[in-house]
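User: Predict structure, ligand uridine-5'-diphosphate.
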Amino acid sequence: MGCEQVLILGVRVDAVTAAEALDIIEQIVREGRPRQVVTVNPEFVMAAQTNEAFRRVLNAATLALPDGIGLVWAARILGQRLPERVAGSDIVPRIAERAAGRGWRLFFLGAAPGVAERAAMRLAAQYPGLTVAGTYAGSPAAAEEDEIVARVRAARPDILFVAYGAPAQDLWIARNLERLGVPLCMGVGGTFDFIAGVTRRAPPWVQRLGLEWLHRLIHQPWRWRRQLALVKFVGLVLRERLTKDQMCAILTFRNSYFQKRDRGDNG
Ligand code: UDP
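Assistant: Predicted complex:
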């Protein structure tokens, strides 16, 4: 969509602010062709190191949002730049706000039974005029795929949010994108849980400090295994950075060697 991109451990992320992301989303909905939006965080990047299909889906998405302060940090370490974190959980309510103004129809798929519905109701109460085309818990299981696709198609949404967690949600969208025929499909992880009040997000000051991951670890300690990926992510980014530095050192040494040799003062 013509914005700058950064590459973090083989995964492409778009260097957009939340405001720019919203404008791109508006453009996608207006164009009306099926497009996929992904919300990349360090866990995604780590999963993509071993899950080739997931990496391909992330890199083929029309818009890849930098969801995770770890990505902003990693980009800086690797000499690239991401203007800010654009979290899926922050952008979904803003999309709902814009949808209410533009008349876009939203479909909420995934999460535990009743949660998608509650999240949709809360957003509709917050943004009067919002059209909820449908809500359904469903499941990413292959046996349910045809029935769910038919259900979404029948509701004719402009935007489909899918909350099955990564990578299931993003692979599900990629597999079904064309036959769904929905202009914009986006994997949103635990966003419905946050909006419905099932799980609580970190307070804004914790988010500002870039410590939302720590808050999640304290409140959902069963995530520790998943969050090990964050430690590995930091290790890989630092290793890539080190390799770059070493390359620079070797090139500097080589250049100075040839300069000296040309001047005839070697040995
Ligand atoms: N989920 C689901 N079906 C599944 C697995 C997960 O609906 O088979 C939902 C789960 O209820 C939750 C969301 O997917 O609402 C994933 O949330 P999680 O917090 O794991 O995602 P993250 O935000 O970490 O990507």
